[in-house]
């Protein structure tokens, strides 16, 4: 359910916030590109266990983050908060 933006925000606050979200989105997309293309893989290893490829799980996690950032930007365009 959307919420209206609070009154009395300092001048430029929303512009700075929007810019930070856009920058985070761009960085996240750059990070995801080699994972999604198969150029890079991520793994983890617990003590006493073999390495496990976790690339698919990390891609899914970061896609949720992307969707969240995109929802925030869409809400800001409507002068709302998600």
Give a summary of the structure in a few sentences:
Helix content is 59%, strand content 10%. The chain has helices at residues 13-37, 55-77; strands at residues 3-4, 43-44, 52-53, 80-81.
Structural account:
- By secondary structure, the protein is mainly alpha-helical.
- It has one domain (12-42, 51-81).
- Helix content is 59%, strand content 10%.
- The chain has two helices and four strands, in the order βαββαβ.
- The protein has helices at residues 13-37, 55-77, and strands spanning 3-4, 43-44, 52-53, 80-81.
- It has a two-stranded antiparallel sheet with strand order 1-4. The protein has a two-stranded antiparallel sheet with strand order 2-3.
- The longest helix has 25 residues, at 13-37.
- The N and C termini lie close together (7 Å).
